[in-house]
Amino acid sequence: MYMSTTASAQKPGTKNSSAGRAGDSIFSGLSLAAGILIFAVLAAVALFLLLQALPTFAAPADEITGGEGFFSYIWPLVLGTLIAAIIALLIATPIGILVALYISHYAPARISKSVGYVIDLLAAIPSVIYGAWGATVLAPALVPFYNWLANNLGFIPIFEGPASQTGKTMLTAGVVLAIMILPIITSMSREIFTQTPKLHEEAALALGATRWEMIRMSVLPFARPGIISSVMLALGRALGETMAVALVLSSGPMIASLIKSGNQTIAAEIALNFPEAYGLRLSELIAAGLVLFLITLVVNMIARAIIARYKEFSGAN
């Protein structure tokens, strides 16, 4: 009697267990399919770029733009892309982290919500709007500052004059990119800051730590992987940005000074020349896109390696 009662009581559970296992199998299969689809798309893009770029690699050096081979053509573009992205990160990273800390740990609730909403709104503005604003408003406004840099710090190669009188320089492009990636760093950092274990924060304050000491000992170590992720994601956006840079930057030969007109990035080079390109010139631009693809891939791999290095310590252990 007891055994039959037990068996009958297990039947509903057995059905639910079977249904649960079936649901797990379906979800696992869908997740696997989604992961495979992402890799397939990535491989298809890489294969397309490689096949279309092969004529460029096989062409004689004198037939490539500039007449000195593909490396001489692409190297200034790579350098310009990296310089613009680094300037943007140097400006946006400290500001984004400080704004995120203010929203999460200093500002009253009403103010933090308003500031957070404004930061999120910046991410919704199209890049062409940033570019138009940078070219028509920001660039002319920075001309006096560039003249001051040339007159007072011109002995430094990156500030060597004469300064551009249009303001369309690499430094202006970096400032515009910094504004564009600021919401990424701020939003992601804010979310990870708010996930810091409250017990750790309260324990630090109870031991007599100031608010800054509590943030330095409890919040920042916990948020370090998230901060790195936000910075690398912002770097990817800065490397691939097209229209804003194309509108702000006056294209020209590679120069060391950040306040002279000139320089170019890979994305802007492709955007400005692709509509009229054909034949070998089209292959050159696709090859440039392949180089940008590889740079972005390497940056993300480095980011994943850095995050994996620090993932064992989350501040919550």
Automatic annotation (TrEMBL):
Q: Name all ABC transmembrane type-1 domain ranges.
A: 78-303
Localization, UniProt:
Cell membrane
Q: How does it sit in the membrane?
A: Multi-pass membrane protein
Q: Which residues cross the membrane?
A: 30-54, 74-103, 115-146, 166-185, 226-249, 285-307
Database matches in InterPro entries: MetI-like, MetI-like_sf, Phosphate_PstC, Phosphate_Transport_Permease
Q: What domain of life does the UniProt record list for this protein's source?
A: Bacteria
Q: Which UniProt keywords apply?
A: Cell membrane, Membrane, Phosphate transport, Transmembrane, Transmembrane helix, Transport
Would you identify the family this protein belongs to, as annotated?
Belongs to the binding-protein-dependent transport system permease family. CysTW subfamily.
UniProt name for this protein: Phosphate transport system permease protein
Q: Which organism is it from?
A: Kocuria atrinae
Name of the gene: pstC
